[in-house]
Amino acid sequence: MIRYPILFFLFLNYSCSSFSRNPSYSALQENPRSLFKMAVYLEELKKITESSSILELETLTYSDGFPVVLVTSKSDDNKEKPHIFLNAGTHGNEPLGVDVVLRFLEIYARTPKLQNLFSLCAIPALNPWGLTHFKRRNSKNIDLNREFKTDATSKLILSLQERLSGQDYAAVIDLHGAPKKKYFFTIVNSKNDVAAARTMAKLPSEELLFSRDGKYPGKRGSYSMIAPGVAISKNQGTLKSWGNHFLKAPLSYTMEYPGKREANHTKKLYLEILTSLIFEILQIQGKQEPR
Ligand SMILES: [Zn+2]
Predict the structure, then answer these.
(1) How does DSSP assign 80-112, residue by residue?
(2) On the chain, which terminus has fewer CB atoms closer than 10 Å, C or N?
(3) Which of 81, 4, 1 is nearest to 280 (CA)?
């Protein structure tokens, strides 16, 4: 029997200290408009994968002239474990998710206990052109998070579909940010979702997006709120819904960080929320019948 809570606290202690490392990358985080430098990002990814015998790096495709890079658990290590797909950097003006996925990969690469629990596939920066220019959309003014449709024609999304199909996924998690908001929230596919509800309930209430009238279910802008910090969205063509329908992941999420809060506090908390969500997913997965 795996003791998730103990491992979770070990992980958090480790994760909190990891933010002070990697000064070369962290220094770039101080000016939000120069957050993303492709060369620095690739160097960071290379360092993380080379520190591990279990992760490997591949170029999925090129998008707007930039490589879109995938980090995966090596295929011989990929069997019989829940497999999780992590994505970030779809919207280039929401860059903190990129750093959070990099820190998560760094911890995973150095923590055999985590590697034994689940395998992963991660794209930390899906829209490198947008990140480089601090723009939500890509160079063709397309919002990639509305393009994940069954009849997708984008080369990037077709490459992703071809590369990721043929694998069972326990969950898909897409890291975003809400530039004008002060609070965290997670968008779920089903009002019965347990993992996100448990995760967000652990946060102090001042960090969470509430419904307008504080009642649940309730409304907040275009979102239906089913609990503090847990929302349902009507947006079509999102990676979250694609994860559910195309990759057949039973659990699929869009996570949102507040763009109006201090960046270092936000990153630290975002990594903790992501970690907690993954542990809640693993708990649920552990209770399911084997596929
Ligand atoms: Zn976004």
Answers:
(1) SS-EEEEEE-SSTT-THHHHHHHHHHHHHHT-H
(2) N
(3) 4
217-225 contacts at long range (C-beta below 8 A, 24 or more positions apart): 217/191, 223/185, 223/187, 225/185
Instruction: Kindly report the CATH number assigned to the domain that includes residue 26.
Output: 3.40.630.10
Domain interval for residue 99: 4-287
Taking the C-alpha atoms of residue 237 and residue 152, their distance in angstroms, rounded to an integer, is 9
pLDDT interval class at 257 (50, 70, 90): very high
Q: Give pLDDT tens digits for 192-228.
A: 999 999 999 999 999 999 999 999 999 999 999 999 9
Work out the angle between the directed axes of helices 96-109 and 263-287 (0-180°, nearest 10): 50
Q: What is the pLDDT of residues 36-71, one digit of tens each?
A: 889 999 999 999 999 999 999 999 999 999 999 999
**Residues around the ion ligand 1 (C-beta < 5 A):** 91, 94, 176
**CA 95 to centroid of ligand 1, rounded, Å:** 9
In the chain, the number of structural domains is 1
Of 72, 81, 30, residue with least CA distance to 48? 72
State the DSSP string of 142-196: --GGG---TT---HHHHHHHHHHTTS--SEEEEEEEETT-SSBEEE-S-TT--HH
Burial annotation 58-80 (CB, 10 A radius, 16+ → b, else e) = eebbebeebbbbbbbbeeebeee
Let me know the angle formed at the C-alpha of 176 by 173 and 179, rounded to the nearest 5 degrees.
165
> What is the distance between the alpha carbons of residues 49 and 258, in angstroms, rounded to a whole number?
29
- 173 alpha carbon to ligand 1 midpoint, in Å? 12
Rounded-to-integer distance, Cα 149 and Cα 159, Å: 14
pLDDT at 24 over 70: no
Ligand 1 centre to CA of 286 (Å) is 30
pLDDT of residue 23: 37
